[in-house]
Amino acid sequence: MKFNYQAGNGWQSDSQEFDDRGQQFGDGLFETVRLDGHGVAPLWQMHIERLALGLKALRFSDAAVELVLHAVDSIAHPPGMTACKLLVTRGVGLRGYGFSPDLMPLVTVRYFNAPEFSTSPYVAGTSDVVLSTQPLLAGHKHLNRLEQVLARDSFDAEWNECIMLDSSGIVIEGCMSNVFVKLDGRWLTPEITSSGINGVVRRWLLDTNPEINVQNFGLPELNSAQGLIFTNSLVGIRSCHIFDSQTLDVAPEAKRWQLAYQEMFE
User: Fold this and answer.
1) What is the pLDDT of residue 2?
2) What is the pTM of this model?
3) How far apart are CA 52 and CA 65, in angstroms?
4) Both 101 and 127 in a single domain?
5) Quick one: pLDDT at residue 94?
6) Of the candidates 46, 81, 112, which is a domain's last residue?
């Protein structure tokens, strides 16, 4: 027997015997995709490639992976929408962590309008939420986002983003973004091998700008940063001009990259 509590109505019987594993355990993946408003997602292929890697990492069966990829391949984005969230869960099953390889995943897509692109620089600080280390999940956009929920709830009132560290004090990412920093004239972005998400905009920047290096750095290095940017699919590329009350320059490369990203969606 199963009951749900509803505000105003109390406990109500629920005839659904089984529960979706995404709801029970966060057993699944998601992609947040920027669209151009004309039914096209310029970086769609990168999103699907990351999704496929995530399905393998979560040990979805070959049949389940084939179903998911067929489903997303058949999506026709409606004109007028500028973003969508694609969500994949392992499916509906009995209680307990174990799962049958015969489970068929649930695939949903929800459309909405992304915020307008902006060139306004961010204000950010250091989060007191430490990212856990799990190489099996690093890079993948899985549904377990409680660290980000807690980090977002801890924002100071003026923050647009934050820097999140791992337990060794290494900078990993923002709460909602990947991070790039300019140190001694070189652009760096942290490794995503033990924690963090391998963002699509991160990958696009690395593919199109081979001068950017993947190299770890800690919080003290940010005190001498010549530029700091945050990237994600919806906002694109945003410079940070105040970090932990320190004023930073807006690097000219960041402006160029920001414009190149936005032009894909015109």
Assistant:
1) 67
2) 0.93
3) 7
4) no
5) 77
6) 112
**Structural contact between residues 187 and 180, judged by C-beta atoms closer than 8 angstroms:** yes
- Structural domain count, the chain: 2
Could you tell me if 171 and 105 lie in one domain? no
- Give the integer Cα–Cα distance in Å for 196 and 137: 8
Closest CA to 205 of 227, 184, 188, 224: 188
Note whether 217 and 160 are same-domain residues. yes
Q: Scan for tokens 């920001």, then name that residue.
A: 258
Residue 213 counted as domain residue: yes
Q: At what angle do helices 44-57 and 62-73 cross, to 10 degrees?
A: 160
In this predicted model, what pLDDT tens digit does every residue of 88-128 receive, in sequence order?
A: 999 998 788 999 888 999 999 999 999 999 999 999 999 99
Pick out the chain residues at pLDDT < 50. Answer: none
For residue 18, the 8-state DSSP code is S
117: in domain: no
Residue 92 region, left (φ>0) first, then alpha (ψ -120 to 50), else beta? beta
Is 229 within 8 Å of 239 (Cβ atoms)?
Answer: yes
Residue 142 inside a domain? The answer is: yes
